[in-house]
Design a protein that fits this description.
Layout: H1 2-29, H2 47-56, H3 63-75, H4 90-125, H5 130-144, H6 147-161, H7 179-213, H8 216-223, H9 228-266, H10 271-281, H11 284-312
Helix pairs in contact: 1-11, 4-5, 4-7, 4-9, 4-11, 5-7, 6-7, 6-9, 7-9, 9-10, 9-11, 10-11
């Protein structure tokens, strides 16, 4: 296991390196002069002033040299300073925003796993019945609904029309921090984030469980008089979870993309909102730092998924 984890983390570092290189060069190849992101549009600057600024920032060097310089600074723990936030260190901005993002993503993913597995089990046990058909329709709706559309509809219905939930933020303006206030603001964004993931997990769980229920050992257990509930929960569900775990690992990565839209719509002060504002302002250091953080999260989620195989199915060996 230790050797396997070392290999996976080494591969993850190489993947992060490739990701940083790709994002760096794509940003530099975008239309427009990068120097425009560094100057005040209201300031009066001559071409000579802009050239001196370009030289001081190293933007007059070839792109490979610029990337090597940025990579060296990043390896030393310096991700640069934000252009749109008065020169604040990028690492400090990411450190303050990662907590709210992790809270939102982990809450939404946990709800999705719980609801998805339960819905999949119910659908498989009551196959082709009214309950199964209703759940299948809801699952299809969840799979086909993009995160930004679900966020806007949820905000309009539950915050605007029904007024069941706050319209955005983590706390009521001007009020002290309370756990109840945080949960009240977290509930709707987390449920919307979980909506699409729940649909995917439920469909995979239902399909996997139906396949397991037709195996010989399930028929043998029933023939021996094992109660139906025990057959489902003790024998069938555990074996049906393995392919679902693969999907769960993927949805943890996909949750990052959904969180970006949800944080923007609900003004949730996480990395998604931070990245959107950074892209709008062409804040290159912040975009690069945020990309590394998101990439690390996705890679870690996939490693955790692979390790979970061994705990769910002892027949699987990692190495």
């Amino acid at each position: 296991m230790t050797l396997y984890l070392v290999r996976r983390f080494a591969a993850g570092i190489l993947l992060l390196l490739a990701l940083s290189m790709l994002v760096f060069f794509l940003l530099r190849l975008a239309p427009g002069d990068p120097i425009s992101s560094y100057i005040d549009p209201m300031a009066s600057m001559t071409e000579a002033d802009m050239e001196r600024l370009r030289q001081s920032l190293g933007l007059d060097q070839p792109l490979p040299f610029q990337y090597v310089y940025w990579l060296g600074e990043a390896l030393s723990g310096d991700l640069g300073r934000s252009l749109q936030r008065n020169g604040q260190p990028v690492l400090d901005l990411l450190s303050t925003s990662i907590g709210p993002s992790m809270l939102l993503m982990l809450t939404g993913s946990t709800l999705a796993i719980i609801f998805g597995v339960i819905i999949g089990i119910v659908g498989a046990v009551r196959r082709d019945g009214p309950v199964d058909l209703t759940l299948a329709a809801l699952s299809s709706l969840g799979v086909s609904s993009p995160a930004f559309l679900t966020s806007l509809v949820g905000l309009y219905v539950f915050s605007g029309v029904l007024q069941w939930a706050p319209a955005g933020g983590m706390q009521d303006p001007g009020m002290p921090f309370t756990v109840s206030g945080l949960l009240k603001h977290l509930a709707l964004p987390a449920l919307i984030l979980a909506f699409g993931q729940t649909a995917l997990i439920a469909r995979y769980m239902r399909s996997s469980l139906l396949e397991v229920l037709h195996q010989d050992y399930i028929r043998t257990a029933r023939a021996k008089g094992v109660p139906g509930r025990m057959v489902i929960l003790k024998h069938a569900v555990r074996n049906a979870l393995l392919p679902v775990v693969t999907l769960i690992g993927s949805t943890l990565g996909l949750a990052v993309g959904g969180a970006i839209f949800i944080e923007s719509v609900f003004n949730w002060p996480g990395m998604g909102l931070l990245m959107v504002t950074a892209v709008e302002a062409r804040d290159y250091p912040l975009i690069m730092g945020g990309t590394l953080m998101v990439g690390a999260w996705v890679i870690l989620a996939n490693i955790m998924t692979d390790v979970a195989y061994a705990f769910i199915d002892p027949r699987i060996k990692v190495g």
